[in-house]
């Protein structure tokens, strides 16, 4: 039985999409916003060095107004750099900042950020304090612990230390991060899920906002979490089955009907038209494989998306895709599939 210390109104709960490196770029986020108007979106993790030392930081920071609420996720281990980047985020109009303390990638570990920062809670507290100086809300996304250490007290101490620096929002991926012996992909599947630890964290620290992430692939399982925590973050399931987000909104009482994929595609065409030839078809098409998830015609839709070429702009390609959806739907009605 899940117990909850706090409001039981699902209207007040947070539904969000996890930041996913190489996946949740601005075009993906625009598409997901069309499907789920109420969810909180996050950028891919962006390092402070990319923003402060890179040639073109604007390409990392720019986004469409439709993406709000949008949180900038950052990776780094230098408070001074975090302070400067927070100012850039404020100037660009982000709704909040998120510190990545969960990524187990070896590449990230070399830069001493991501999940390995869980071993340095005082440094994380310093990073949070620096991020919060400009007034933007700050959250931390982290794991339960490192490698095979299984000690809830260590997790709670980490959260309490960081909270003392001003963070009030913790997004917990309910697995450990194994820094040795597992790839980032296997780190999303092999370490056991412990949702109960996240529930206990909220119970022990009810004054904090605790959001849970990890392992949610269907509406019923995800909705059950709202009885124990303040929010649910959906990861790869939102990418592969984006209508899951709309189904979650409906279960939360925020919409009555699911969106029509053809309407979504028409709105996405309008978005792509504003980019013209500067937006090649593959930069959008790669995010759309889940649009017909589980539906008749999904195979034909996937095959069409795989034909995207950089020589065609996204708007032109999507217009052809819309014709395909119309023909497919008409065949389904005609033949009673």
Automatic annotation (TrEMBL):
Record keyword Oxidoreductase present: yes
Q: Which domain of life is it from?
A: Bacteria
According to its UniProt record, the EC number is 1.3.1.-, 1.3.1.91
Which UniProt keywords are present, listed alphabetically? Oxidoreductase
Task: Return the protein name.
Answer: tRNA dihydrouridine(20/20a) synthase DusA
The primary gene name is dusA
């Amino acid at each position: 039985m899940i117990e909850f210390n706090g409001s039981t109104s699902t209207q007040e709960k947070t539904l969000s999409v996890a930041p996913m490196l190489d996946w949740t770029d601005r075009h993906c986020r625009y598409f997901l916003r069309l499907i789920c108007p109420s969810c909180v979106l996050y950028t891919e993790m962006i390092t402070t060095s990319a923003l402060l030392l890179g040639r073109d930081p604007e390409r990392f920071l720019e986004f469409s107004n439709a993406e709000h609420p949008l949180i900038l996720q950052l990776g780094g281990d230098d408070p001074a750099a975090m302070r400067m980047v927070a100012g850039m985020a404020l100037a660009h109009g982000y709704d909040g900042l998120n510190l990545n303390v969960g990524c187990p990638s070896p590449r990230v570990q070399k830069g001493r950020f991501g999940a390995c920062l869980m071993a340095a809670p005082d440094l994380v507290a310093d990073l949070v304090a620096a991020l919060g100086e400009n007034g933007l809300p700050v959250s931390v996304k982290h794991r339960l612990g490192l490698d095979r250490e299984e000690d809830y007290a260590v997790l709670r101490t980490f959260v309490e230390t960081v909270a003392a620096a001003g963070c009030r929002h913790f997004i917990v991926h309910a697995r450990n991060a194994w820094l040795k012996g597992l790839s980032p992909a296997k780190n999303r599947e092999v370490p056991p899920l412990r949702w109960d630890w996240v529930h206990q964290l909220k119970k022990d620290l009810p004054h904090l906002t605790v959001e849970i992430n990890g392992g949610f692939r269907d509406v019923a399982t995800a909705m059950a979490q709202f009885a124990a925590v303040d929010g649910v973050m959906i990861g790869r399931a939102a990418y592969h089955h984006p209508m899951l987000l709309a189904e979650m909104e409906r279960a939360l009482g925020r919409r009555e009907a699911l969106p029509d994929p053809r309407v979504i595609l028409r709105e996405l065409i309008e978005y792509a038209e504003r980019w013209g030839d500067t937006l090649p078809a593959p930069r959008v098409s790669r995010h759309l494989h889940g649009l017909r998830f589980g539906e008749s015609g999904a195979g034909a839709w996937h095959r069409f998306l795989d034909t995207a070429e950089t020589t065609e702009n996204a708007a032109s390609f999507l217009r052809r895709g819309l014709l395909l959806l119309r023909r497919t739907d008409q065949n389904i009605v005609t033949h009673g599939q």
